[in-house]
Design brief:
The protein is of the alpha+beta class. The protein has four helices and nine strands, in the order βααβββββααβββ. The N and C termini lie far apart (61 Å). This is Putative 3-methyladenine DNA glycosylase.
């Protein structure tokens, strides 16, 4: 008999570690989003680590700004950014406080609250696609910039909370280059910091960075 996922909230100390340790350890964990239509629970299947000042792919590589301020801590909080003028992406901040690093939540499986997630993702061809990619994940959960700075380790009724879930065994975790990252940050030999559950159908396809063409 398979044991049900552990619903114990993850403590803040879980996130107060180097980001490349936290990222693969998030696979199999459960993110719960409280909504007026009921909770939506997502099992994480794909993530990417971003290591602040040591990482040219990180939003915090060149220092603190109004946009990335949440990345500087405390750990366990949510960093949400808006990209391409249309999509939101969600990250979990890792410690120690004052040193910006975070984990981008790239994909997951909706394990509770399918109906409210489906309403937000009408273009999904099936339930495996509801949160298959970082923008789709944020859309399915109804996460936007208003959640920037939310505490995923908070007590009581909170809009977002990370639960222990069922950690993925190390032999089922794969790693490789991050998706769509340019230059040195996209070098898989230097930064093999995309982690995913082997063979999981909700994992998004890898795409190398393609420079955007400017309109003439």
């Amino acid at each position: 008999m398979i044991a049900p996922p552990d619903r114990t909230p993850l403590p803040r100390t879980f996130f107060d570690r180097p980001v490349v340790q936290v990222a693969p350890d998030l696979l199999g964990r459960i993110l719960v989003r409280t909504t007026p239509d009921g909770p939506i629970a997502l099992r994480l299947t794909e993530v990417e680590a971003y290591d602040g000042p040591n990482d040219p792919g990180s939003h915090a590589y060149r220092g603190r700004t109004a946009r990335n301020a949440v990345m500087f801590g405390p750990p366990g909080h949510v960093y949400v950014y808006f990209t391409y003028g249309m999509w939101h992406c969600m990250n979990l901040v890792c410690g120690p406080e004052g040193r910006a690093s975070g984990v981008l939540l790239r994909a997951g499986e909706i394990v509770e609250g399918l109906e409210p997630a489906r309403k937000r993702r009408l273009s999904a061809r099936d339930d495996k696609e509801l949160a298959k990619g970082p923008a789709r994940l944020a859309t399915a959960l109804g996460v936007d910039r208003s959640f920037d700075g939310a505490d995923a380790c908070g007590a009581g009724e909170t809009p977002l909370r990370m639960l222990t879930g069922t950690p993925v065994p190390s032999d089922q975790v794969r790693s490789g280059p991050r998706t769509g990252v340019a230059g040195e940050g996209g070098n898989g030999d230097l930064h093999p910091w995309r982690f995913w559950v082997a063979g999981d159908p909700t994992v998004s396809p890898y795409r190398a960075h393609v420079p955007r063409r400017r309109r003439s």
